[in-house]
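Quick entry between incubations.
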Amino acid sequence: MAPPMVRLSYNDIHKAIQASAPKIIKDFAPDLFIAIGGGGFIPARILRTFCKTTEDGKKRNIPIQAVGLTLYESLGGIEEQIGNEVVRVQWIDFSTVSDFCQTALTPQLGSKLKHGGLLGRRILVVDEVDDTRTTLVYTIRELQKDINKQLELVTDVAERERLREATKLAIFVVHNKLKPKAGEVPEGVQYFSAVDTPDVWLAYPWECEDDIDEHDALRVNNPKVENL
Amino acid sequence: MAPPMVRLSYNDIHKAIQASAPKIIKDFAPDLFIAIGGGGFIPARILRTFCKTTEDGKKRNIPIQAVGLTLYESLGGIEEQIGNEVVRVQWIDFSTVSDFCQTALTPQLGSKLKHGGLLGRRILVVDEVDDTRTTLVYTIRELQKDINKQLELVTDVAERERLREATKLAIFVVHNKLKPKAGEVPEGVQYFSAVDTPDVWLAYPWECEDDIDEHDALRVNNPKVENL
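Done. Structure below.
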């Protein structure tokens, strides 16, 4: 039997993210978002609204880097990739992360930012849903490899260990499906989900090809995700 | 006097993009999106829903590459960049575009895709709003430079000219403000906007820090954008 479909409105998503932001700020205080595209683009952009940092009394946007990964999705002219294989469509652009750091550094942040862009940062990986967890675990593992490569370039041992300690990874998903996962969240990686759901079919508003108002209206008769 | 504020709901944006998609497909038929982040992330993800391509009877998602550019926005620890300066926060990851092409190529697409990722493609640059046009013109110019660099690597002259001809750029914005622009859309670049607006303050739903339902309710009493 097909799992039940739960329709979600844009405002549902907006509110779920809004409600999660204070905990994310309090427990993790991210200063870089990595959005997993396409699904993470919308949540990351919304979350940014609620996670502005303040510096010298001015509100600052947290930068978003996008990575494109595909698991279920189709790649242009390729056969569907089934199973656990994750294919990179885009990865972090370290040339601009570095440019960004060189441009952006203020004296007090200099030592924090000068090593390749990831070191010393509190990096929040954002996606819409944690289904089998495959893409999330892949992303964290690849980021850890990138961080380790950047750490190797730091010649001062004390500084390298300070940066290793200061660099943090966390995950935020709008929905976490409570089901067996293909991988574990690596140790030391904080995990935030706005809503935990049973293993239902989540019909996201941005996937609605028909009348979006009707999608929202049908949603009213949905069982609430929390009560499923 | 501050310009009037026009509140927009997520469904307004969804419907505006939905209504634009058939014309974009008919007149341009994009096969690669480049989303200008943060503003272009949400429109690009929504547009993808309505622009699926069909190949061998299967629906295919159009890949999205993200670029991060900042004009008005703040960069982490940097002073606000005022004026016409555009700062790259992220650019296209050509290593994965190429990987993508090598992985993705089917025999009939081989010659179309093998040269660096942009050649032979119909590239749609997506953003939320065309205000002064600075960021859009910057993006198109930089992409044209990248395309020219990739063309220089094609040794066969006839093939190079064929690819030059086949590579197309276009722009899609949800809102185009009818006002003097700091730059012109370069010749040969198609331009699509979902809604043309006067020079008003567009309050996007993803920027709403308060109650999103209230934002939507207040919107009902808005003058309609089309009637302003």
